[in-house]
Specification:
It is a single chain. The protein is α/β, with parallel strands linked by helices. It contains 12 helices and 7 strands. A 7-stranded mixed sheet has the order 3-2-1-4-5-7-6, sandwiched between helices. The chain is globular.
Length: 304
């Protein structure tokens, strides 16, 4: 199984991908505390502008944090997200700051839980009427869709989930996850460009599409091109789940300076305009409790 962090400074025990994460069903959603909000106000000027990048990076290299090691090796990659989702007990102060105190880390766990719940509900609704096809775009190991299918109670034999990514290094990990959940027959990994979806999947007609964890890295023209291509393979009444991203705590500049994570902020209103520009209709928007990600559901309402 691919390790979650490839670093000589970090030795992780090898184990199967966790099927569920501790506390998913019982823990409350995460919101920065007053102490954490005060800390952002005090430290942001130093982290965002005053301290040299090399000083901040030197501090990070002294940490034994699996998350920091992975973020240094592959900023914004699927392994980092798996570590965030797993949310193990922090190993040192820097690890705690990255894993538990950073608002984007909190919001990412909130987002996963909300998106997984929405996908499960859509699978239940569509699966009750007919066999369904699901697309995961920039899917990595496909955790959102796989967990949603397992949670939905839908017969896996009625579902074909196509998980598409330009890079296939997460696929073995994802196959292990599918085997552990007992849904391997439903999960299909495909390496390819989702903007050329008709070449990757010539005959697909999707009831559910997920674009999560990717939109914030694309330019407006790239995102519009992707949404247009996906709309073309959705059935009338099909749903697309995606999200915007805002920076209410002013930590985005630090992520760019130190981690080279270059998010593109977009409000719910702006994302709605992009989706509507390709003929999709926004029917629901939920802002996860930390206030970073507006999670949007859009429908294809008619034939071309």
């Amino acid at each position: 199984m691919p390790a979650l962090a490839d670093s000589s400074r970090v030795r992780e025990r090898h184990h199967a991908p966790p099927l569920r994460f501790a506390g998913d069903a019982t823990m409350p959603y995460e919101v920065p505390s007053m102490r954490q909000r005060a800390s952002y106000l005090l430290t942001n000027p130093w982290r965002n502008f005053l301290l040299p990048v090399r000083v901040l990076q030197r501090q990070m290299t002294r940490s034994a944090s699996p998350l920091i090691a992975e973020a240094q090796a592959r900023p914004g990659g699927w392994r980092s997200m798996e570590i965030l989702y797993r949310n193990d007990e922090p190993v040192d102060r820097s690890d705690r700051q990255a894993l538990r105190d950073d608002p984007v880390s909190m919001a990412s766990r909130n987002r996963r839980r909300i998106v997984t719940g929405k996908l499960a509900s859509l699978m239940t609704a569509h699966g009750a009427r007919s066999p369904i096809s699901v697309l995961g775009i920039g899917a990595g190991p496909g955790r959102h869709i796989q967990t949603a299918l397992a949670d939905s109670g839908t017969d896996p034999a009625r579902v074909n989930a196509y998980l598409i990514d330009r890079d296939d290094d997460a696929f073995d990990y994802g196959r292990e996850l599918a085997a552990g959940l007992g849904i391997s027959q439903s999960i299909h990994f495909l390496k390819g460009d989702a903007c050329r979806i008709r070449e990757v999947l010539p005959d697909v007609a999707a009831q559910i599409v997920k674009v999560v964890g990717l939109a914030e890295y694309l330019t407006d023209p790239q995102l519009v091109e992707l949404f247009r291509a996906l709309r073309d393979v959705m059935v009338p009444g099909g749903s697309l789940i995606t999200h915007g991203m805002v920076d209410p705590y002013g930590t985005g500049r630090f992520l760019r300076r130190v981690w080279n994570v270059k998010h593109r902020p977009r409000s719910a209103k702006y994302m709605t305009l992009l989706l509507e520009s390709v003929g999709l209709t926004v029917v629901d928007c939920v802002v996860e409790p930390a206030g970073v990600y507006p999670i949007i559901t859009a429908l294809k309402l008619k034939f071309d």
